[in-house]
Amino acid sequence: MRVDLHCHSTASDGTDTPAELVRNAAAAGLDVVALTDHDTTRGHAEAIAALPAGLTLVTGAELSCRVDGVSLHLLAYLFDPEEPALLAERELVRDDRVPRARGMVAKLNALGVPVTWEQVERIAAGGSVGRPHVASALVELGVVPTVGDAFTEEWLADGGRAYVPKHETDPFEAIRLVKGAGGVTVFAHPAAAKRGRTVPEATIAKMAAAGLDGVEVDHMDHDPDTRARLRGLAEELDLLVTGSSDYHGSRKTVSLGAYTTDPEVYGEITRRATGAFPVPGAGGI
């Protein structure tokens, strides 16, 4: 069984539609795929409607969090999407994305970059707008060669010249909210230092004590030494270990199923969840 528990669609900052994502996941030989768009579940219905036979969909979201001045992402799986408290918090985060992106456009204009809000909006194509869409605009304009090159202090990285903060949930509150909605939480790419500052292991220990279920260890942004260290930490804290592609379509070079989760760990995630259940494919449309 091949299980990829971290993928994005056009509902946030991926380039595959939800329907394309599940079809591509099946073509890539996956048995289970999770749709975890940023702070939204908007793509779930389309993905379910198109789900090919033989592929199971895990519904989820990647929640934007911040603690002690450090941004981090929390993967939430199989929660009730209509649970009021978690829904309200997701909407608060999502609604702050547009003014934040507009603020980045204004800062870039002040730096002499002729990016426009209309350009960013076109790239987002109705998805939950974020920094990757602004980064893609910089690529279109020839300012940087790749999306990754926009995430530097010169441009869009935390504290960068065109960076604008957004509302982000305290991770301890996020864990509480996801648990209250019957979901399971996994700390996404916790040691991806090239993305910016990362939280110390002491904070991960506190998150584990607050109910965190797991850590995403096998990820393109973790080198072998980092993975080994995180595995040791997970064992020490009794956390589940997951692996995922963090697929974004053509916006990143990683392919679906490049990193996967042990089927036994996937089984444990489904056993812990009470808010929703994995959806087996029925042939799609």
Search tags:
8 strands; alpha/beta; 8-stranded mixed sheet; about 35% helix; globular; about 280 residues; about 15% strand
Outline the structure in words.
The chain is of the alpha/beta class and 285 residues long. It has helices at 18-27, 44-49, 84-95, 97-110, 117-124, 131-140, 171-180, 201-209, 224-237, 263-272, and strands at residues 3-7, 32-35, 56-67, 70-77, 184-187, 214-218, 240-243, 279-280. The chain is built from 10 helices and 8 strands. Helix 8 links the parallel strand 5 and strand 6 (214-218). The protein is globular and about 50 Å long. The two termini are 24 Å apart. The mean pLDDT is 95.
Give a topology summary.
Elements: E1 3-7, H1 18-27, E2 32-35, H2 44-49, E3 56-67, E4 70-77, H3 84-95, H4 97-110, H5 117-124, H6 131-140, H7 171-180, E5 184-187, H8 201-209, E6 214-218, H9 224-237, E7 240-243, H10 263-272, E8 279-280
Parallel strand pairs: 1-2, 2-3, 5-6, 6-7
Antiparallel strand pairs: 3-4, 3-8, 4-5
Helix pairs in contact: 5-6
